[in-house]
Design brief:
The chain is an alpha/beta fold and 359 residues long. The chain folds into two domains: 79 residues, Winged helix-like DNA-binding domain superfamily/Winged helix DNA-binding domain (Arc Repressor Mutant, subunit A); 241 residues, Rossmann fold. The strands form two sheets. A seven-stranded mixed beta sheet has the order 5-4-3-6-7-9-8. Strand 4, helix 11 and strand 5 form a beta-alpha-beta unit. The longest helix is centred in the first third of the chain and has 29 residues. The radius of gyration is 23 Å and the shape is globular.
Length: 359
């Protein structure tokens, strides 16, 4: 009688236990992210950061919330290392580093927007499951409205820290032009944070923000008025392939080219609307040039967002999708296919790659 020889690899008990521990940690992180959103939304972090320490009863009274829920929330936050706990006093507090990251929206280290993004993208899962099974996609405008709030809150700190100080100076002769007075297009401007930063930094230039999501354009117009720059930044609902031609000195794509159904068409339109010595500024999520170079926390985060939002949006528009972890080579091919002859990485941060394209 013949015998079947098993080819299964033996279980490594230590690796199994480590993996199970990782999964449990991920369960805790996923659930705690919802509580992080609640902490931002209800001002729990802010109130805690303004104090020298609080009990659950004190924090509940300060924020007009229910103590029993706050008690459980604080335990979770301390277990995750988001707040500090003093056993002697029974009070919770924020360390300076936690306070900076969770309450200061002007800081480049602020992460509060990420909780909005995670919450909104998680709500997309019924549609994304359907897309996995039947094809199709999901447009940005079909997502939970907190996605737009979170995207602005998440990316704005990085733009505030680097756009004017590092990214614009890294471009070829552009800083001098827009200081003197030029035309700038911000394509896929969303809520207008990047457009407003440009208007504040370069008051002699005219900035035009374009986005195909009408509610975002209305929000951007209101934000420009509040920032007192509505005289030099104009917003209009338009796609990346048909925004008005004004022979711009600078055209910007802030974390959005990879979302587009036809990025090559968008680049071709830029080629037609850019002045002969102008530049395109393309800011994209940090990603590796090979699959395995994305096996890290940043790659994990951006590939998840790409699955739930970026790739789904491009497919919904009939495209094949670059995705949020598009390689530098894929981005270069897209830019060259659009007619440009020069493409280079001009700058980078831990979360972004910054490219310049010229004719």
């Amino acid at each position: 009688m013949s015998q079947t020889v098993s080819t299964k690899a033996p279980l490594n008990e230590e690796k199994l236990q480590n993996f199970l521990g990782q999964v449990v940690g991920d369960f805790g992180a996923a659930l705690s992210s919802v509580l992080g959103y609640i902490g931002i939304k209800l001002g729990l972090y802010k109130a805690l950061g303004e104090s020298e320490g609080m009990t659950s009863a004190e924090l509940a009274a300060k924020t007009n919330t229910t103590e029993r829920y706050v008690r459980e929330w604080l335990l979770n936050q301390a277990a995750g290392g988001y707040v500090e706990y003093d056993a002697a006093s029974g009070k919770y507090s924020l360390a300076p580093e936690q306070k900076l990251a969770l309450t200061d929206e002007t800081s480049q280290f602020y992460v509060g927007g990420g909780f909005y993004v995670v919450k909104a993208m998680a709500n997309a899962q019924p549609r994304i499951i359907e897309a996995f099974q039947n094809g199709g996609g999901m447009l940005w405008g079909e997502h939970d409205s907190d996605l737009f709030v979170g995207t602005e809150k998440f990316f704005r700190p990085g733009y505030q820290a680097h756009l004017v100080a590092d990214w614009i100076p890294a471009l070829t002769g552009i800083e001098e032009k827009i200081k003197a007075g030029g035309k700038i297009a911000d394509v896929g401007c969303g809520h207008g944070a990047s457009s407003i930063l440009l208007a504040e930094a370069y008051p002699n230039s005219q900035i035009y923000g374009f986005d195909n999501h009408e509610p975002s354009i209305k929000h951007a117009q209101s934000a420009a008025e509040k920032a007192n720059v509505a005289d030099r930044v104009k917003f209009e609902a338009a796609s990346a392939s048909d925004f008005p031609d004004a022979q711009y000195d600078l055209i910007c794509f802030f974390d959005c080219l990879h979302d587009m159904g036809n990025p090559t068409s968008a680049i071709k339109h830029c080629f037609e609307t850019l002045s002969s010595d102008g530049s395109i500024l393309i800011v994209e999520p940090m990603a590796g040039n090979s699959v395995e170079e994305n096996f890290n926390p940043v790659g994990r985060t951006f590939s998840a967002a790409s699955t739930l939002c970026c790739t789904a949006n491009a497919i919904a528009q009939g495209g094949t999708a670059l995705g949020a972890v598009a390689s530098e080579e894929a981005l270069k091919e897209t830019v060259l296919a659009g007619g440009f002859t020069h493409f280079r990485r001009a700058a980078e941060t831990p979360f972004n790659r910054v490219f310049e394209a010229r004719k």
